[in-house]
Amino acid sequence: MLPEISFLNPEEYKLNFKAEGLYYITASATGPDDNVYQDTIEIIVLNKNQLDMLLKGKWDGMKTALGNQDVDGSVKDIVEDSKDTYREQFTALVSVLDIIGNELGQIQLVKIEGNRAEYEIIATEDGTTYSYYLLFVRDSDGLWKIERF
Q1: CB-based contact 46:33 (threshold 8 Å)
Q2: Class of 48-148 per CATH?
Q3: Burial class (CB in 10 A: 0-12, 13-18, 19+), 19
Q4: Taking the domains of the chain in order of start, what are their residue ranges?
Q5: What's 91's DSSP letter?
Q6: Shortest CA distance to 104 belongs to which of 116, 90, 91?
Q7: Chain centroid to CA 89: how far?
Q8: What is this structure's pTM?
Q9: Distance CA 61, CA 13 (A)
Q10: pLDDT digits over 23-32, tens only?
Q11: Which helix H or strand E contains 116, and what residues bound it?
Q12: Whole-angstrom Cα distance, residue 9 to residue 21?
């Protein structure tokens, strides 16, 4: 199934995919030197359940890294703008990261809107259950990353 293509301006098009799957998009343009330049990119379109599984996998990966006191592994799926802040915090808490990783609970999808996915974290601390906010966003590189929790 081909995507719907909307012309926005001479340098920008919008593609709307109706079905999940793997798509290859090729663009070509003639440069000022009359040479033709071409590039192909791969686009993966996921449905809501597939995206939910992907993001839960990223969360579980971070929790596992925290449990192993692996600071670099813990920040690999955090947005670039926040990565250094989380790295500093995790480094300062390295001796208790395994406890933190074990206390962070499962996540429940609240909503997906555009380039944002909101989750609720259910955690138990000292026998009391708490609810926290978790936000995934698509980073500048187009990948889903944790923005904050």
Answers
A1: no
A2: alpha beta
A3: exposed
A4: 4-45, 48-148
A5: H
A6: 90
A7: 21
A8: 0.80
A9: 35
A10: 999 999 999 9
A11: strand 116-125
A12: 27
